[in-house]
Amino acid sequence: xxxHLKYQTSPYLLQHAENPVDWYPWGEEAFCKARAEDKPIFLxxxxxxxxxxxxxxxxxxxxLEIADILNKYYVSVKVDKEERPDIDSIYMAVCxxxxxxxxxxxxxxxxxxxxxxxxxxxxxKAARYGAVGLxxxxxxxxxxxxxxxxxxxxxxxxxxxALHQHRTPASQADKTLPDTALQWxxxxxxxxxxxxxxxxxxxxxxxxxxxxxQYEKHGNSRALNMxxxxxxxxxxxxxxxxxxxxxxxxxxxRYYLVPHFEKMLYDNALLILAYCKAYDLTEQSFYLGVAEKxxxxxxxxxxxxxxxxxxxxxxxxxxxxxKYYVFTPQEIIELLGQADGSAFCERFSxxxxxxxxxxxxxxxxxTKNLTDARFxxxxxxxxxxxxSRTRLHTHDKVLTAWxxxxxxxxxxxxxxxxxxxYLDAAKKAxxxxxxxxxxxxxxxxxxxxxxxxxRGFLDDYASYIFALLSLYDATLERTFLRRAVQLIxxxxxxxxxxxxxxxxxxxxxxxxxxxxxxxxxxxxIPSGNSLLAYVLVRVNALLPDQGIENIxxxxxxxxxxxxxxxxxxxSMFLMALSDFWEPPLLITAVxxxxxxxxxxxxxxxxxxxxVLEHPSEEYKLLNEETTFYVCRNHSCLxxxxxxxxxxxxxxxxxxxxxxxxxPKMVLPLLTGIxxxxxxxxxxxxxxxxxPMPMNSRRITRRLPNCFPSLRKMKRNMPQNCLIFCxxxxxxxxxxx
Length: 736
Hints:
Layout: H1 11-15, E1 23-25, H2 28-37, E2 41-46, H3 51-61, H4 64-73, E3 75-80, H5 85-99, E4 106-110, E5 116-120, H6 134-147, H7 149-163, H8 177-188, H9 205-218, H10 221-236, E6 250-251, E7 259-260, E8 263-264, H11 265-282, H12 285-301, E9 310-313, E10 316-317, E11 320-321, H13 329-336, H14 338-347, H15 379-389, E12 394-399, H16 400-417, H17 420-436, E13 438-439, E14 442-443, E15 446-448, E16 451-452, H18 458-475, H19 478-495, H20 528-542, H21 546-563, H22 571-581, E17 586-590, H23 599-602, E18 608-611, E19 627-632, E20 635-636, H24 642-652, E21 657-663, E22 673-675, E23 681-683, E24 688-689, E25 692-693, H25 697-702, H26 708-716, E26 721-727, E27 732-735
Parallel strand pairs: 1-3, 2-3, 17-18
Antiparallel strand pairs: 2-4, 4-5, 6-7, 8-9, 9-12, 10-11, 12-15, 13-14, 15-16, 17-19, 19-20, 21-25, 21-26, 22-23, 23-24, 26-27
């Protein structure tokens, strides 16, 4: 027997279309029924790959006894949080106020006027482990609705009034917030296993991007170290799928060993950005390799024929979480043979005892060697075996916001790898969004089966603008920039709160709800307000406009006020703030019939490049050559040609680093290192050594032919010595 969800397109709603509960989609039909029959509303919010949503469905919503109570005393409404983030935002805030925590499923009891009076998350059917059972709760609230309704309505009114309160925005942007956030990260960093705090651990790659930005701008090696350890541990653990690639949603433990097994598009997109940034800063091929593995998972398993990216893959198969991902040694040996199978098991810690319910999640936590590719030829066999053994359900809904993040990630990967496949995939996906999810300046949240979801929200606009700017950065094609500016103006018109500051999650053309929420905090993904601040900083540098500049200043002030209580929770905004106070390299290019296709490959990842169509009075050609106008640190350099630009870019990478060789025999005697001035390193016990001044490792690795002195140094170095790189700014010594 089907209910009122049978004609919906959302995979999550369709999962419940055959429940004995008479579910309604969110809408006036349900609210009218509640008013007419004088019933409260039971609102359940979740998403299609949510494990505990599946559990609550099996225990309660497929249960005839629970269904009978809900159908008799309530009007039941189902909402897909991915398609209606505005509804989810309101009632998640209510849930957090009631319980002190959030998560899905969200369970809300409310009036037909959408006013909540009780909230929770997952409820078992019957009471256990100190938690009230859903059956008991439904009957208690039904009695209170019948006999103590005034008290419930008073509670609902108080909650509604609290939701409508506005914080007073800050008067100006606060440049101290990044330093405060950095202190929090340092205090809460798990030096042994990476990440921050205890279990569970979410990837939150935007936090790592912020840390790496702090290293890039200030040479904070501690910030880079925290990011690198976390990136290495996440990959080494079971959070990364070492057989089929891609990252799972979060780790249930401190070690990144046992994940929550669902894979989300947004996690993998943001992680590609983080690993690319690490590669950009360190030139370690390991990070690029992880980014490419993650991209291969998306392109092979999560990409539609039309170019859009699917939203997620289930954690469960055959009703068991993680069944798809775990192995026994016997399975591996049967597939690969005794010798190869045993070696594979040793490499990936697949043991008889297991590490997850008697079986093993492949991982590399026991080894420091994360780059051994000897076992890669065996992976197709194991992948095929997994697919034949049990299949994961892929949720084929295409979401504008998440697709936009993946487009940005592929653009960055293209710039790191120079592999045109990634740019082609990014362009194809953007074309799909533009043709299928855009109606001129109106965006839509999702599409599935040719049917559009709700009108877009702030996250959709901010993320798509981010994607367009990423495409512009990768190609320098002005079409993407013009489209981004066009959508910024539409976003301001539809979503900006001109009275209190910030941007509403829903716009003037979206459905009116209980109140207008604003999401500022960066959770699993950056908030629309944080991301919009970031793109506004870049667009304001590219195309100075008084209107955009005014909105930018208001946004930075508003977000500073929001972030002051807990700056570490607003990492994407902090990146915008840092770029505002300390602008990235700004290059204005005046081409003279020359294509600048290679320019994105040699520039810093955060550089802002403005390509003019024609010379002007302000920006002229130098000697009839393509001319570049370079500004950094709020000051501008004389006009230069391409050769001079490359020289200037190399200077950007210069640090207070020098190379030196030290006899191996003295290393155990060294108790420390002190800087004694530029070009000198003082080693304890051995006086002052005058090493050979050298550019940074980055330039040395990227352009080795420019630095014969280092090669000469290696040739002349005695065999019993090691080459060291000393960072004189941070008093740090490491091997090269």
